[in-house]
Amino acid sequence: MIFTFRPFTADDARTMLSWRYPPPLDLYNINADTPTPASLDADVAYLLSPAFHYHAALDATGHMMGFCCFGEDAQVPGGDYSRPALDIGLSLRPSLIGQGLGNNFLAAILDLGRELLHPVHFRATVVDFNPRSRRLFEKAGFRQTQTFHPPDRPQLTFVVLEREGEK
Questions:
Q1: Which of 21, 60, 106, 122 would disulfide-bridge 25, Cβ 3.0–4.6 Å?
Q2: Would you state the pLDDT for residue 29?
Q3: Predicted structure pTM score
Q4: Residue 69 φ then ψ, to 5°
């Protein structure tokens, strides 16, 4: 599958905010509770911040298949992010997880990151109970550089993986 990307629109942000991942991936649900109109507007405004570089991933028909972000919003509190690297966050629409799209999706995101931001290194932070995501990054040449427990969720372990920015 070929993915095309565009910067997030308000509609893209609302679509992503409506996605619900099943346990244990429900950690990735942005609004666990039913949002109020004001909180939904605030979340949309946050996701549209240019500093976070949110992009919608579209299929050939223009349907949103997933998203990615670059920078600080892809970091998890408690990790050591002092080494210069472009942090990437990503997810496919919940119904597409496990459908064999991950390798092409990640490759397209790395290409987008290179095109837009020219990183020397890429970095991803993955929760350790998501081995599928970790394998995806490792298959793309990422290697573990640290593990940590976020101060606000000490029961969880996160793994930081890095790779060179150039192909």
A1: 21
A2: 72
A3: 0.93
A4: -140, 160
